[in-house]
Design a protein that fits this description.
- This protein is an alpha/beta fold.
- The protein contains eight helices and 15 strands.
- The two termini are 17 Å apart.
Length: 256
């Protein structure tokens, strides 16, 4: 797992303790981009840094965590791990479709459990290149892996099944329980979650640039950084659609 994070808590000691726990054990998996000490600052930092996950205190002086989330556009809401000293918010927190709900003071064991749940949102792409000498069995296995990638996607429309060729696909966008396929002239809806679809596509052609977006690198015109530091992928569709890119995923794209 490789993801970026924001720590939000109005208590400096609580922020410092959580940062230390994360950096000591999970520095290879989680990059802490920034901290925020209030709800208003949390909204600004989420918009500016676009973290993959936010460790979010529920009760803060200016607004609570749910007001923070309601102030964000739907596509800007990252994964959330709630942190709080009170357990009476548990049910509502899970209603917000969060990763986990952790009571303070956070114990190392409880943090381990939360991170394990977080990992499920960032499936690793298996390496297909052998590390040592290339034997016949390894070559056969490598060929089988590469030929198992999807070449087309079946889309059911009424009583018809449309075959969408992957070289025509510009991008995929996750919409809760379904995924939207964008081609130059059409949009198609399938029931396959983006996380499952990603496993069946060639990672050198299709890259998950954000939690809700996966793009074809053949249809990316450029990567552009905005004045406030956000990174955008500009697509070659008619509207030149601009999509937010996670910082950690951009590093992965550069290595392709």
């Amino acid at each position: 797992m490789h993801c970026s994070a924001l720590i939000v808590d109005d208590e400096p000691l609580a922020r410092r303790r959580l940062r230390t726990m994360l950096e000591e054990k999970y520095s290879s998996e989680i990059e802490i981009l920034e901290e925020a000490c209030s709800g208003e600052q949390a909204i600004e930092r989420i918009k500016d840094y676009a973290p993959d996950v936010v460790f979010l205190d529920i009760q803060m002086p200016d607004m609570d965590a749910f007001e923070v989330l309601n102030s964000l556009e739907k596509d800007d809401v990252p994964l959330i791990i709630f942190t709080t000293a009170y357990d009476n918010f548990a049910l509502r927190a899970f209603d917000e479709n969060t990763v986990d709900y952790v009571l303070k003071p956070i114990s190392p064991e409880r943090l381990d459990s939360a991170i394990e749940k977080l990992r499920k949102f960032f499936p690793e792409v298996e390496e297909s290149v052998p590390e040592t000498g290339l034997t016949w069995e390894k070559l056969k296995s490598l060929v089988e892996v590469n030929t198992n990638y999807l070449r087309r996607i079946q889309v059911r429309i009424g009583d018809r099944i449309v075959l969408v060729k992957l070289d025509k696909v510009i991008r995929f966008h996750s919409e809760e329980k379904y995924t939207v396929i964008y081609t130059e002239n059409n949009q198609f809806i399938i029931n396959t979650p983006l996380v499952e679809l990603e496993k069946r596509l060639d990672p050198h052609q299709f890259v998950r640039i954000h939690r809700s977006n996966m793009v074809s690198l053949d249809h990316v015109l450029e990567f552009r950084r905005t004045e406030n530091g956000k990174l955008l992928a500009v697509m070659d569709d008619l509207n030149h659609t601009q999509l937010l890119v996670s910082r950690n995923l951009f590093k992965k794209i550069q290595d392709l």
